[in-house]
């Protein structure tokens, strides 16, 4: 499970997806399948969450990895490259961005 904390020594990745309400569920199904059957089994995976806005036009994905290199290795794998091609067909755009936690509040 992801933990948002400045004391946590992990790589945080936030990915946003833009889509139409008509493809939102299909995209969510692809993302859930990717996490359940591939991403969560990769070395360095800590945890992730998927969030959908009310209009079903955006999905936000928050994931954490032990190291930046672990995330990049997963992203560059043949299986994830094939999955990303299918994901790309279901949305207008998506962009994974790596972040450091600068502050957190509980």
Automatic annotation (TrEMBL):
Listed Pfam families: ABM (PF03992)
InterPro entries tied to this protein: ABM_dom (IPR007138), Dimeric_a/b-barrel (IPR011008)
Keywords: Monooxygenase, Oxidoreductase
Segments forming domain ABM: 11-105
An MF annotation (GO) of this entry: monooxygenase activity
Name recorded for this polypeptide: Antibiotic biosynthesis monooxygenase
Species per Swiss-Prot/TrEMBL record: Aliiruegeria lutimaris
């Amino acid at each position: 499970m992801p933990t948002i904390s400045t004391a946590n020594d992990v790589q945080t990745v936030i990915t946003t997806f833009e889509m139409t309400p008509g493809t939102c569920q299909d995209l969510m199904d692809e993302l859930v399948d990717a996490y359940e059957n591939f991403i969560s089994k990769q070395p360095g995976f800590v945890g992730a969450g998927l969030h959908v806005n009310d209009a079903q036009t955006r999905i936000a994905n928050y994931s954490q990895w032990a190291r930046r290199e672990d995330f990049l290795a997963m992203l560059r794998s043949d299986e994830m490259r094939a999955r990303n091609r299918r994901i790309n067909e279901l949305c207008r755009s998506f962009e994974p961005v790596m972040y450091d936690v600068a502050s957190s509040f509980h």
